[in-house]
Amino acid sequence: MATKTAEELLALGLRDRWYPLCPSGTVKRGELTRIERAGEQLLLWRDSAGIVHVQEDRCPHRGARLSLGVHMGDRVACNYHGVQVDGDGVVVSVPGSPGCALEGRPALRTFPAQEHAGAVFAWFGLDESAEPTPLQVPDPIAGGEWDNFLCYVEWDAPYGYSLDNLLDPMHGAFLHRNSHTMFGGKREAVFQIRAIDDGFVFEKTDQRGVNFDWVQLTDAGAQWVTLDIPYPDTAGPGGAFTIVAALCAINETQHAAFFWRCRKVSGWERDSWRILYRNRLEARHWAVLEQDREMAEAMPLDAWDRENLYQHDIALVRMRRLLRSEARRQAAALAAPPAAPAPAAPVPAPTR
């Protein structure tokens, strides 16, 4: 991949990570879909078996947009000169010049892709030829005894603003104080950070199960934020309302956000929860999310340069330090010259 500075990586997303790109339903059979994610122009399409492919939206011939081309089942044809590329990025046909050297070559950057919990994920590797880390999704969106609804949004704000918001439990008692779930509890608190494998938990020391009282950040091949919102019995079966969130920068000033709203339910309780959610709770949740959107989009782009943090913000400080350290490491790796090939072993002299 092209060299990027640490600041660019922080704005567009670290590499060697899986990122959610869009809801699965966005990529329809027989169609070509163009999106921008992590500063990359991407083409998404499904082959005749329904498998999703994520590739650079750039014909390897002259750089025209493949998304303006033709879906041919197991390949995509550029509309400019007809060059055909398959799901592995291999040029399979050059109709204007059959047998040319371009045919049979892997010439289009192709991103490893998977689908989970109603979303398309892609691996953005630092080394484009290296195998990706396995994608591990949190239990609440992995199926089994859990059920979920995916809420997808695109906001006109840097993705870091939403990450800050998710790691800030205290805003629930103020910004969302008039919501149907976050009206209770104290408006002052002392927080602590508790280390876990591949991340940390940020939690109130004197309140649990009342409001937005804790949040967990996990970064292991993908970055996940998990939190619980207490639910009354009137909200149906399943205990606390769990939110699993993942973010993906679109560019420096826009991002896509995925919020899976989860309950631990199965059988008849699952059916009851889904009906209640659709008929009564979903609109309320969108209203809460709209409060977050308005706050994030109204913040100035230099908000971080002029902020004054205090004890409630120690999770932001921890998270930003971790991201900056990794961004500097990745930027240095991208800027390093390629390793010289090892010298060939000397050929032994023939014996007489």
From TrEMBL:
Residues 338-352 have a biased composition (Pro residues). It holds the Pfam family VanA_C. Residues 18-122 form the Rieske domain. Keywords: 2Fe-2S, Iron, Iron-sulfur, Metal-binding, Oxidoreductase. Residues 333-352 are annotated as: Disordered. InterPro entries: Cholesterol_7-desaturase, Rieske_2Fe-2S, Rieske_2Fe-2S_sf, VanA_C_cat. PANTHER family: 3-KETOSTEROID-9-ALPHA-MONOOXYGENASE, OXYGENASE COMPONENT, IRON-SULFUR DOMAIN CONTAINING PROTEIN. This is Rieske 2Fe-2S domain-containing protein. The lineage of its organism: Bacteria, Bacillati, Actinomycetota, Actinomycetes, Pseudonocardiales.
